[in-house]
Write a structure and sequence with these properties.
The structure is a homodimer of 201-residue chains. Chain A has 201 residues and is mainly alpha-helical. Chain A has ten helices and no strands. Chain A has two domains: 1-58, Homeodomain-like (Arc Repressor Mutant, subunit A, Orthogonal Bundle), CATH 1.10.10; 61-199, Tetracycline Repressor, domain 2, CATH 1.10.357. The first copy, chain A, binds a DNA duplex (30 and 30 nucleotides) through residues 11, 13, 18, 39-41, 49-56, 60-61.
DNA sequence: GGATGCGGAATGAACGTTCATTCCGGCCGG
DNA sequence: CCGGCCGGAATGAACGTTCATTCCGCATCC
């Protein structure tokens, strides 16, 4: 920002520098105050740019929130799916999936809250909505495979996924609010064992 | 609403009539679009009253959302706590608590979503925040009692509660979004058995 | 090598719109 | 008739967005 002397000594103007600053500021504010509760000039101030500069990088506030949503959805999708050990045992598969989701929530808590808060919001466009399916479909396939081997209960896969993901969100939000007497990592690790008991046969 | 001729022929003006209409309209709109995303004149139109009339019943938009929050928090608190069979077995206690929460979510799905969405929002006042503790503290006591009898795992009670409540929210939201191949009641009933497995010793 | 001027990025004051809130003329029950 | 309640037009503040202007690094020229 303006009080950073380095900016004056070394311009260090990499391209995308400000774009990243805007996305970062928008993530924090949208996660905390919601889309309608966040004024564009406020995002600009937090990003350390002028209000007009926002519109050099994003054509509108809606375009900004969509870009942000897609960016983090893409990160969480890659985190969950990249080189997943498909051939592992169901129990190990669940542990690995949980571990990856926990790692994302721990590394990027604001992004996790943001994605959860803006899920299916009316100002997200088709492309952003479609991004959801890209994670959910492979996950559903894992559940069905685990059910076929008899390791997981025969409830509807969507129900089990809603239950598991809901539990993760509940624990992360409680940790974020400071309601838990243990660290987020510790809480998520303990919850993993509990939730596996919920879905295993 | 405005196109109901009965309103003109028979005033049928019970006291609190319009107040209830306003609260009902606000519930639907706040649950769907959020606080900042909902314009006051829109609430008035949906309630079938003039924009100015809103301010005869609530001094401000903030006062309206606080009244709404407190009303439904009070309803869910009464639903959960009233004449609870304290002396029952832990398994039956859990079943009854789950049944009551499910009944509330089924009877008032918009209120359930609204309460969840506005939990700890910055425009809620101290009184509204304090209402939360009135449900959570007795529930925590139940968990601790069940842990003492050895029926429930010895994880932090807050963690178990976050996990259970998160799972309920996850299932309700999935049902609300039409993502489940079974009805909300059916989904919640199946999930009850699953979640008990998660927390029982 | 230093001065000059150019081009695009950045800026923030200003614009039209939308919002929460106020105000007032009319309407309805007594 | 009259008094209170009501509706919706009016109001000012705040919003998203635009645009005339400034700023800055670099190439060019003397």
């Amino acid at each position: 920002m303006a009080n950073d002397p380095a900016l004056h000594r070394q311009p260090a103007r990499e391209p995308g520098d400000k774009r990243a600053a805007i996305l970062d500021a928008a993530l924090a504010l949208f996660a905390e105050r919601g889309f309608h509760g966040t004024a564009v000039p406020l995002v600009a101030a937090r990003a350390g740019v002028g209000a007009g500069t926002m519109y050099r990088y994003f054509p509108s506030k809606e375009a900004l929130v969509n870009a942000l949503y897609r960016h983090w959805k893409q990160v969480i999708t890659a985190t969950m799916l990249e080189s997943f050990p498909l051939d592992a045992e169901p129990r190990a598969l669940f542990a690995e999936g949980w571990r990856r989701l926990s790692a994302f929530a721990t590394a990027h808590p604001r992004a996790f809250v943001f994605l959860e808060l803006h899920h299916h919001a009316p100002y997200l466009d088709e492309e952003s909505r479609a991004a959801d399916a890209r994670v959910l479909l492979p996950l559903r396939a894992f559940v069905e495979q685990a059910q076929r081997t008899g390791a997981v209960r025969d409830d509807p896969p969507e129900l089990l996924m809603a239950l598991v993901f809901g539990a993760v969100v509940g624990v992360v939000r409680a940790a974020e609010a400071g309601h838990l007497p243990v660290s987020r990592e510790d809480a998520l690790a303990r919850a993993e064992a509990r939730v596996w008991e919920a879905i295993r046969r």
